[in-house]
Structures are given as structure tokens and as C-alpha cells.
Amino acid sequence: MATYLNGVLYGWYPYVCLTVFLLGSLLRFDASQYTWRTGSSQLLRKRQLVWGSNLFHVGILIIFGGHIVGLLTPVVIFDALGISHTFKQLLAMSVGGIAGAACFVGTSLLVHRRLFDARIRKNSSVGDIAILLMLYAQLTLGLTTIAISAQHLDGSEMVKFMDWAQGIVTLHPAAAALILDVSPIFKLHLFLGMTIFLVFPFTRLVHVWSAPVWYLGRTGYQVVRTKRRIAGGARDQSMTLADLTPKPLGAALPQPAGED
Between the chain's N and C termini, which has fewer beta carbons within 10 Å? Predict the structure, then answer.
């Protein structure tokens, strides 16, 4: 029975979560674009929001990036680079621990702000609170796994998770069996992580897809305000809307008709 349940949860469930994650995000963007946002309450307890949000986002980005690189990079690449399993395990524990602690503090501030401020709680949906508590629980489990990982500094447990994750990506039918005997804490951490992907399209987390990273490479713009000529008591309509749109810095400014 345990083997069967393990196969369902860690062999089939990942594909259900990934399918809903991708298709759900696409369908929500296509059908409900006005809900494609994160509800803002920044006017309330702004200082606590800034600290909590910054710590959360920095920490979660480092954690997520570390999981992607650590789990999906083939073991042979680390071996070819001369990176031992012990070193990788210690690196994951130290960097992940620091980022996780920062993220945990940030999430604690966000949870306290949302649950213990009556005005914010009243304007929070069930989904807002649920996903925040799920992330909080996931962070707690992740930090707990550090103590367990310290008992396996040879990296043996870490390799099992790498093989499992890569087996899921490559559709290996026996991927679930690779983590059959790992600690229940790790299994719960994996299950909750997959569940977060499952509910992702139905929560405010979808705003991740709209992160304005393209702003980093955008050229500078300025908005120009100008007085239009008044003729005969009415505004001169010679300047079109196109003339009033933001122009790149350094571009020639539009002139009203009749001026040099």
C-alpha cells in the first residue's frame, strides 16, 4: 500500500500539478485578464509591507533558483566540474538557510499584517490568506529539512531528489521509487510544493508571469506637457494624440502647426 501511495503522490501527482499550472495560467490570462494581478493593500501598514515584501521576494527568488539549478542539473555535470556532493550539500544548506530565513521573516511580517490588521483582513479573500499560509508552511518545512540534511553530508539523499526531479521531467516511469525511503518531512515538503503549483493559477501568484523584467532593457522615456495654442476661443486641434505620446529621450519635440 505504501509503495502504491508513493507512486500516486510522487509519480502521477506531479504531472497533474504541472498540467494545471501551465494550462490554468494560460486560460486565466486568456479569459480573465482583469483578475491577472495582485490585489494591493499598500496604503495600509506600508512600512511593514515594504519590509515583508522585500525580504519575501528576495528570499523566494534565491530559493526557487537554487531548487531549479540544484534539482535539474544532471549529476554528471557537477562531477565534470569537480563539485563534490558534500560541497553541494553544504552550499545548499548554507545559502538556502540564509535565503530561507530571510523569506521566513518576510512571510511572518506579511502573515501578521494580513491576519491581525482588521481592515486588511476584511479586504482579503480566502485565496489571499490560504496561499500565504501555504507558503508559510512550505518555508517552515524547508527550514526543517536542513537539520535532516545535516545527517547526510555525503549528499546521498540530495542525489535521490535530483534523480527524482529529472526523472519526472524526462517521463521516467519509475521516478517515484527513487524517493520511496526518504524522510517524511522531505516528502511532505515535496507534496506541498507540488500543491502550490496546482493552485497557482487560481491565486494572486499569477502576477509572477507579469514581472516587468523587460523594463531593464527599455530606453528612457519622458512625458512632455505643452500648452496648445488657443484660436478663436477654441483649442487648436492640429496636435494629434500621437504627438502627445511619450517620446524617447533626445527625440525632437512636436511643434504645433504654424510654428517653426
Answer: C
Q: Which residues, 6+ apart, have CB-to-CB distance to 115 below 8 Å?
A: 121, 129
* Separation CA 172–CA 260 (nearest Å): 72
What residues contact 3, with CB distance under 8 A and at least 6 apart? 177, 180
Q: Where are the alpha helices (DSSP H) in the chain?
A: 2-7, 13-31, 46-72, 75-80, 85-116, 118-122, 126-149, 156-169, 184-199
Strands 221-222 and 230-231, by their bridges, are unpaired
Cα separation of 194 and 180, whole Å? 17
**C-alpha–C-alpha distance, residues 134 and 9, integer Å:** 18
From residue 119, alpha-carbon distances to 109, 122, 128, 131, 152 in Å are 16, 5, 14, 19, 47
Q: Are 166 and 242 in contact (CB under 8 A)?
A: no
Per residue in 97-146, pLDDT tens?
Answer: 999 999 999 999 999 999 988 888 888 888 889 999 999 999 999 999 99
pLDDT tens-digit series, residues 169-203: 999 999 999 999 999 999 999 999 999 999 999 98
Q: What is the DSSP string of 84-145?
A: -HHHHHHHHHHHHHHHHHHHHHHHHHHHHHHHH-HHHHHT--HHHHHHHHHHHHHHHHHHHH
- 8 Å CB contact between 250 and 222: no
Look at residues 181, 161, 160, 163 and name the one whose alpha carbon lies nearest to residue 172. Answer: 163
